[in-house]
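Long-time lurker. I teach an intro course on protein structure, and each term I like to show students one example going from raw sequence to a predicted 3D structure in token notation. This year I'd like something fresh instead of my usual example. Would anyone be willing to generate the tokens for the chain below so I can use it in lecture? Attribution to the forum is fine with me.
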Amino acid sequence: MKKLLTAVSALALLPCAGAAFAQGPAAGTAPSLDAATLFGAREGVQDASLSPGGTKVAFIAPTKGQGNALYIVDAAGGKAPTPALISSGDPDRISSCSWVSEQRLACRLHILVKGAIEIMEGSRLVAVDADGTNTRLLSNHERTDDLGMVLGGDDVVDWLTGQDGSVMLSRVYVPSERIGSNLKDTRSGYGVDRIDTRSLQVKEIEPPKPSAAEYISDGHGNVRIMAAATSGGATGQATGVYLYYYRKKGSREWERLGEYDAVHREGFSPYAVDSDKDVVYGLKKKDGRLAAYAVSLDGSKTETLLYAHPQVDVDGFARIGRSRRAVGVTFATDKRQVVYFDPQLAGLARSLSKALPNLPLVYFADSSADESKLLIWAGSDNDPGRYYVFDKTRKQMGELMLSRPELENARLASVRHVTYRAADGTEVPAYLTLPPGSDGKKLPTLVMPHGGPESRDEWGFDWLSQYFARQGYAVLQPEFRGSRGYGDAWFKNNGYKSWRAAIADVNDAGRWMVAQGIADPGKLGIFGWSYGGYAALQANVLDPKLYKAVVAVAPVTDLPAHVEEWRNWTNHRIEAERIGTGPEPREGSPAQHADAFVAPVLLFHGDRDRNVALHQSQLMESRLKGAGKNVELVVYPKLDHQLDDSEARADMLRKADAFLKASLKP
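-- Reply from a regular --
Happy to contribute to a lecture. Here you go:
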């Protein structure tokens, strides 16, 4: 271990890849672009994977508008990346890519189309050679005589290590029937096929089942776990409850494993199968918080606790290699942490943390097939992150790419984990970002509640809070009650049903900033995106005089109307339960209380938002104008919930900053 540490820490880094988006400015130089352009730029490396032989790295990088491209670069560095697949962003963009063989990749395309009535969101899988040739559709082809439409659902179940160019895919089948002919295909539901990504030759592994919703393999070509979705009501609405089944080794018979309620997170949720130990790893609650368990697949279903944290949820598993084997558990306290099962990886992680002392967030992003070479990502609060390739055999590590090259050598703010006391005495965790070089006193300040609400913030780089800190604002990101990750007692009934507690915590965050002397009370604003936008607006309903300016991006503004947006979809029942019934949804809807607003409001929304309809912002604007309030709505054409366009994000940042500067006056 000590020898490895010495070897790693003494290394000289290899040069960065030659593409402009993978490099930062030369040392000692300052970026020439304005702050909004720098911070609004989409992440330069959005997804990265290492080839089975460890010789090449594939990564996705943004292009013009919402477009992006798959690039291939030599893992040794020193050469410019070459494009292999390019997407315009309208209607599709590349969301992820991984290697099928040393020369071939499988990629997922995200598709967004605005129809006459609904915005349709879906996905497709394609395969492409590393040189950009031989592109093939892996998802089932749509037929003119299909009796239904497939939006997505296809996924790689097993990368089939050693079977060059073939993968196991879960695919959706829709029955078809040709009018005036006896030709028909009665297959329906979700099945698993082994498919050669070059010839498209298919071998059925699991026949399609109408209720099937998930398959999990052991990483060696054997499907061991299946989930069946349950439905309720005459319309077949999804309930969020899944029945899980398993197979013993060598058997084709399905046996009942258990039941999992994804809405309330009750029961055992399987994640990964360990073939050697003959167990499935998954998450299940212990003392009101998610913990990691192993369940035996030998027929006994013996349950073993792997790891539980006394304060926060265990929210996933660290996985590595072509077989995607689980090597540890991951969770976030004040910082994201990984506890490794694998002693060698645990030791290597400790060595890397010492070798990269200024980059405390270190993750194994991918590995070669034999795991002798690792693709590593490391970052911090004031470093957006960088990718390294580590050769275990040679004990050499080289820096390859920057996550956000535009910000290399830019002065970024530090982020501090704090707690503040709510009105009822509860200590609420939060993240505080102060402008670089400031004394932290009497500053223009933004409270920035997160989205979700089934989410939370974490310590690390955040482009929004860093931008506003760069512009001179103190930023506080509260982990209000209703946030996920802190267990059931903190989550309560989610930030919508429990909006009174959640919004009270958000407002107490602003009051705390004033009481601490950080915020100038005349320059206190609030900024939120998605649920955060909802919280920013509803906070002003509860205390109209606290904030002097409100910025809401893609906010929910009317809870009953938000439920109705999903009326024609199978998740309508789940969404209705999430929001609740009775008087509370209306009382918790800012659009229903426009007359309460005092502060000016700035709204942003994309007109192809499938998560939160544009109508939500339009309704808020209409109600505020009708009440004689100061409001402006900026709509971005062809953009979705994330405003995934660098120019649009930069424009949003400039407009928000100008609005806040004009509004936040002592």
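Some talking points for your students: Residues 646-663 form the longest helix (18 residues). The CA atoms of residues 119 and 610 lie 6 Å apart.
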